[in-house]
Amino acid sequence: MYIQHNGVAMGAPLASVIADIFMTYLEITLMDKLTQLGVCEWYRYVDDTFVFINKDANVDNLLSILNGFHPSIKFTRKIEDNDKLEFLNVQVIRSPEQQCFEATIYRKPTFTELLTNWNSYVPIQNKKAGIVSIVNRALNICSTYKFLEDEFNKIRRFGLYNNYPLSFIDTIIGIKLNQHRNKMITELDKPIIE
Predict the structure, then answer these.
(1) pLDDT confidence of 9, banded at 50, 70, 90?
(2) DSSP for 123-153, written as a single string
(3) Is the dihedral of CA 28, 91, 18, 65 positive or negative?
(4) Angle at 65 between CA 63 and CA 70, to 5 degrees
(5) Which helix (H) or strand (E) holds 59?
(6) What is the pTM of this model?
(7) N or C: which end of the chain has fewer CB within 10 A?
(8) Which of 185, 95, 79 is nearest to 143 (CA)?
(9) Which residue in 46, 61, 55 sits closest to 15, CA to CA?
């Protein structure tokens, strides 16, 4: 289950700091009680929370406690659908046969597939940065090679839709994939310090 807090106007300069302080206070105050009522895991990024609860826990009771903490906040919930749940532009997928979770990129239905058009009068560095950022995002989020392959194909499609040369996109994918692979090998070779 995904529980989301909708409280602070996140456009304000200090909003994330204030939200973090407030949510830390909420967690310190309520976590023992929430754990007793069935919360197994609680993950948070600023004011968005991703919560695992026991099957027999009363979700409405948990929400009532969270929403009763302060009159200015409102927690909402989203329950997984077909073993899938979106959280912060990541689609988390429950894999019952492997008893694990997988992740891939989530795009809202309103996503337009628009990038800076290749033919626009924008420096090439900006166009390159746009592709690099979505390739890096795929490398950091996709948990399987199949999801990564699917995401690279989407990036190619978005690029072609915006008049990018396929060779330009594939070169960036190749460079970033090689850098990612080398980074992973380097991390595996590091000695474990005990």
Answers:
(1) low
(2) -HHHHHHHHHHHHHHHHHH--SHHHHHHHHH
(3) negative
(4) 105
(5) helix 59-67
(6) 0.82
(7) C
(8) 95
(9) 46
The answer to whether 130 and 116 are in contact (CB under 8 A) is yes
Write down the domain spans for the chain.
14-68, 108-189
Using a CB cutoff of 8 Å and minimum separation of 24, what contacts does 99-108 make? 101/143, 102/143, 102/144, 102/147, 103/141, 103/142, 103/143, 103/147, 104/141, 104/142, 104/143, 104/144, 104/147, 104/150, 104/151, 105/137, 105/138, 105/141, 105/142, 105/147, 105/151, 105/154
The 10 Å Cβ neighbour count of residue 58 is 12
Beta strands in the chain (DSSP E): 2-5, 39-45, 48-53, 75-78, 84-87, 90-95, 100-105
> Are 78 and 4 a contacting pair, CB within 8 Å?
yes
124-141 and 166-189 helices cross at what angle (nearest 10)?
A: 50
pLDDT tens profile 86-123 = 999 999 999 878 789 999 999 999 999 999 999 999 99
Cβ within 8 Å of residue 89, ≥6 positions away: 105, 106, 107
Return the number of other C-beta atoms located less than 10 Å from residue 164's C-beta: 23
CB 151 within 8 A of CB 105: yes
Helices 124-141 & 145-161 angle (0-180, nearest 10): 160
| Residue count of the chain | 194
Assess contact for 154 and 136: CB atoms under 8 A. no
